[in-house]
Amino acid sequence: MKLSELEDFLLSNNEKKFRATQIIDWLYVKRVNSFSEMTNLSKELISKLNDNFYFDKLEIIKKQEDKDVSKFLFKLSDNNLIEAVLMNHDYGNSLCVSSQVGCNMGCKFCESGRLKKVRNLETSEMVEQILMIEKEIGKRISHVVVMGIGEPFDNFDNLVSFIEIINLQKGINLGSRHITVSTCGIVPKIYEFSKLPYQVNLAISLHAPTNEIRDKIMPINKVYKIEELMKAIVDYSKVSNRRVTFEYIMLDGINDSMDCAKKLADLIRGMNAYVNLIPYNETENISFKRTEKKKILEFYDILKKEKINVTIRREFGGNIDAACGQLRAKGEVK
Ligand code: SAH
């Protein structure tokens, strides 16, 4: 529940509004696991809280570790499984959280989408991924990326509550510039996202510079064409004054020609944006192949020459299937 919702609950239950901040402090700063531990609340309020709320515990059922990266498999209270990935960077600990059980976007190259959406994650289940992992590792998470299983803009309201809750200064206090949401391009939600009062980073899974190629690998492109997507992103940059990241996975023979690099440059020239080239992580069930290193570098050089801001994503977690597009909660998909 967001602070404002909790305040409303309290007021309509004959309690003082300021109790909300106390409760938030117990939950997110002191991190207690029951209402009875909230010793500055009256017995009466504690019993009202017990009657109306519950602590939804996720269970970590598996942890796999590799250099600088750990993958956590969570069991939700209805036995569904999700994953989160922790990366140790020199600037801090970054957590990649899931937003749904399964995903309906159907991107051809992505392992997570092989399990169709079972349900959206509750806001609490998204927040819990952070709390539980911080407890497990005994360290603070400094950055959150919503890039795990699921399409966050297909779970928009819970995503927005999640952002508000983790951003709250008196609570978990994750700075909005340390939060990144990634979408495959649900255009109307990009416009809605622009209107939010947070300075959260937006990443767009673009992966192709033309409709012809994008149609083949990302079904969402049949609904929202690249032109519409770009218009929404230009609007987002204007309204939010934020720089957008374009994610571009390099798929051998599909989207990695030098012609694609030029078309990509033409597409985003002049925008307040940068391109993150992602070496494709191969998975056993999908036949796409990774572009070879030399060609990725040539692609990168063309973008540079065209004066496009570009980086190549550092690779993490391939050995434990924890890399982008490899998350799928093994055992769920046959
Ligand atoms: N649904 C959102 C959030 C998932 S983010 C989105 O599409 O943006 C996960 C990122 O990893 C996306 O950019 C996705 O396109 C990318 N990805 C998927 N499969 C991949 C793979 N096998 N190798 C590298 N990146 C992959």
Structure, explained:
This protein has 334 residues and is of the alpha/beta class. The chain has helices at residues 3-12, 19-30, 43-52, 123-137, 156-167, 187-194, 211-217, 220-223, 226-240, 258-268, 293-305, and strands spanning 59-66, 69-75, 81-89, 92-96, 100-101, 119-120, 143-146, 179-183, 201-205, 244-250, 273-279, 310-312. It has a ten-stranded mixed sheet, covered by helices on one side. Strands 5-6 form a two-stranded antiparallel ribbon. α10 (258-268) links the parallel β10 and β11 (273-279). α4 (123-137) packs across α5 and α10 (258-268) runs parallel beside α11 (293-305). The longest helix is centred in the middle third of the chain and has 15 residues, at 123-137. The protein is globular. The mean pLDDT is 94. The protein binds S-adenosyl-L-homocysteine (SAH). The site of S-adenosyl-L-homocysteine (SAH) has 19 residues, from β8 and β10.
Keywords:
single chain, 334 residues, alpha/beta, ten-stranded mixed beta sheet, globular, binds S-adenosyl-L-homocysteine
**Unreliable stretches covering 5 or more consecutive residues:** none
For the biggest sheet, the summary is: 10 strands, mixed
Bound molecules: S-adenosyl-L-homocysteine
Please give the order of strands in the largest beta sheet: 1-2-3-4-7-8-9-10-11-12
| H/I helix tally | 11
How many runs of DSSP E, i.e. beta strands? 12
Computed over alpha carbons, the radius of gyration is 21 Å
Mean pLDDT: 94
